[in-house]
Amino acid sequence: MSELRFDGVTIRYGNRRRGTTAVDGVDLTVPDGAVVGLVGESGSGKSTLARAAVGLLPLTGGQILLDGQPLRHGSGPRPVQMVFQDPYSSLDPRMTIGDSIGEAVPRGTRSADRRQEVARLLELVELDPARAGAYPAQLSGGQRQRVAVARALAARPQVIVADEITSALDVSIQGTVLNLVRRLQRELGTSMLFISHNLAVVRYVASEIAVMYLGRIVEHGPTAEVLADP
Ligand code: ADP
Ligand code: ADP
């Protein structure tokens, strides 16, 4: 995994005279192997920053660096993979979960290896590989979200950006997804930017917390310190 760094990143929607500066000069580093929690009120710019990190939005200013190199969004698998609040943003309801995950495995992988990789990823997210033929609608919300994580991992990303991935889940099943995040970090050293408006969720997975307000990072530090602040 890798270090992701936002360096003076500014993102505006609309034009110069009429528009919104959604992200305003953000400096933020996700260290190699760390889970950094990004919290903030609705509208503070979290999703905009996330989408820029995976190349879904152009920057107005600044740059995004992966291990010190400007992030490139060419063809081929994206080095930064995103998992969304709604698993259907990355899972096609008409495809089996095995095919959805397999599709994200880098091209050039032989089909037998691809099947093996799908089985390995399903096990990693604690689903029975025998369920590869199931469709997303046949799974629970928590299982679907774990399949979305498996699909993101299939692309062998350097960093994962998780945008409110537990927010649409019942509290009783949020834990299965959060435990997966913790395990990925511990066992694979996955670098992750973990976005949530829910502090209880963030404190459970993140070693550092950054607080966003009106497009800026207004506070950033170790989780215990940020939460201890009056
Ligand atoms: P958050 O994820 O923290 O809720 P967003 O990144 O979604 O915040 O939004 C930040 C700001 O950008 C808000 O003022 C929002 O209204 C605005 N915004 C978000 N998406 C768009 C868009 N596609 N076009 C114009 N403005 C947008
Ligand atoms: P969540 O989907 O919220 O993470 P669980 O993973 O505990 O919750 O699964 C919910 C239900 O789905 C359980 O009752 C279990 O019987 C069934 N289930 C879970 N994983 C599998 C699997 N790999 N194969 C078959 N059934 C499963």
TrEMBL record:
<dbReference type="GO" id="GO:0015833">
    <property type="term" value="P:peptide transport"/>
</dbReference>
<dbReference type="GO" id="GO:0016887">
    <property type="term" value="F:ATP hydrolysis activity"/>
</dbReference>
<keyword id="KW-0067">ATP-binding</keyword>
<protein>
    <submittedName>
        <fullName>Peptide/nickel transport system ATP-binding protein</fullName>
    </submittedName>
</protein>
<keyword id="KW-0813">Transport</keyword>
<comment type="similarity">
    <text>Belongs to the ABC transporter superfamily.</text>
</comment>
<keyword id="KW-0547">Nucleotide-binding</keyword>
<dbReference type="GO" id="GO:0055085">
    <property type="term" value="P:transmembrane transport"/>
</dbReference>
<feature type="domain" description="ABC transporter">
    <location>
        <begin position="4"/>
        <end position="230"/>
    </location>
</feature>
<dbReference type="GO" id="GO:0005524">
    <property type="term" value="F:ATP binding"/>
</dbReference>
